[in-house]
Amino acid sequence: MIDPFGRSISYLRLSVTDRCDLRCTYCMPERMRFLPRADLLTLEELDELASAFIAKGVTKLRLTGGEPLVRKDIMRLIDGLSRHLRSGALEELTLTTNGTRLAQHAADLARAGVKRVNVSLDSLNPETYARITRGGRLAEVIAGIDAAIAAGIRVKLNSVALLHDNLMELPDIAAWAHDRGADFTVIEVMPLGSVEADRIDQYVPLTEVRRRFEQRWTLTDVALRTGGPARYARTSDGGLIGFITPLSHNFCGSCNRVRVTCTGKLFLCLGNAHEADLGALLRSGDQEALSRGIDRAIGIKPERHHFAIRERGAVALDRHMSVTGG
Ligand code: SAM
Ligand code: SF4
Predict the structure, then answer these.
(1) Inter-helix orientation angle 126-133/138-150, to 10°
(2) Does a structural domain hold residue 39?
(3) How many domains does the chain fold into?
């Protein structure tokens, strides 16, 4: 699949649910309205849709949400999709998780061929963690990370930089990750969907975050590109830090990904409204039509996003990250 700007699309992020057991303050409002259950694709439909993309050249599949591990019987989907790893069609099957249920699933994930997971963790202080996530228990996530590492799964920790909640703590989180052999990536908060707080009060550019890291380590930029939006630097201790800067530095030129929601909507870009409803095509049972629908959609992938947090109250898109799949 090649888009109009010559980018080869080989990476699918599939949201398996919009629901979550946490309510991170920058991600969703406390009283989030979730989609009607009847609108969600079944596990069989999710498998079929992912498989259609794999047949068209997707080699990397990331399950996300909402929280993927709260979806009932999620292991049935993952076990099923692992056939594409065995056939060689898929190079990587992975997920992004908040880690609260990782301890329960780590061994099964490893058995299914999951070799890496991204775990989102914005604080190592139990109170701060509970405040940011509105009730999350840090110990569960740490147990999940340890279980994943014990099962032989590589963990990457992701933190969203939040001016008042964790800016000072980010170097400690990076050091903690590195001590466990995990990479660490920090992300700028994006104006996706409204939440109670104003993102302008949460946002801190990663130039400022980097300055904090540089008070602790000498950072050396490394040319490493993983096909994703992160730019990397190595600390003087040898640990890797990724910087994802959707606002302060646009990275769309090398974008290789598309997103599908748990209702079968294909989003061509996290920061644009362009979408295609693949659910109806999927339910028609006509695989040729589904394949053509995917081709048509790739043909409208926008060149870039235009995020900005410049003024109070501005929300770039009325679409939460938990719906599109982060
Ligand atoms: N629940 C899982 C988790 O938290 O890892 C997967 C879904 S979550 C939407 C995926 C990622 O998006 C998380 O790392 C989260 O911190 C990030 N995220 C959510 N809302 C965001 C926002 N408005 N700006 C930047 N990152 C956001
Ligand atoms: Fe849930 Fe992940 Fe959003 Fe936090 S960031 S509320 S864990 S979906």
Answers:
(1) 100
(2) yes
(3) 1
Segment 229-233 long-range contacts (CB within 8 Å, at least 24 positions apart): 229/255, 230/185
- Residue 1 CA to ligand 1 centre (angstroms): 27
For residue 220, report the distance from its CA to the centre of ligand 2, in Å.
31
Residue 4 resides in a domain: no
Structural domain for 86, as ranges: 11-324
Q: Which residues pair with 117 in a beta bridge?
A: 95, 155
Q: What is the CATH number of the domain that holds 119?
A: 3.20.20.70
In-domain check, residue 3: no
Q: Which atom of ligand 2 is nearest to the CA of 65?
A: 8
Considering every ligand atom shown, identify the ligand nearest to the alpha carbon of residue 319 and give its number.
1
In a domain, residue 93? The reply is: yes
Q: Which ligand is nearest to the CA of 144?
A: 1
| Pocket of ligand 2, beta carbon within 6 A | 20, 22-24, 27-28, 65-67, 98, 120, 322
Claim: this prediction has a pTM higher than 0.90: yes
| First vs last C-alpha separation in the chain | 22
pLDDT in tens, 190-240: 887 778 887 778 889 999 999 999 999 999 999 877 667 789 999 999 999
Q: List, for residues 43-74, the tens digit of each pLDDT value.
A: 999 999 999 999 999 999 999 999 999 999 99
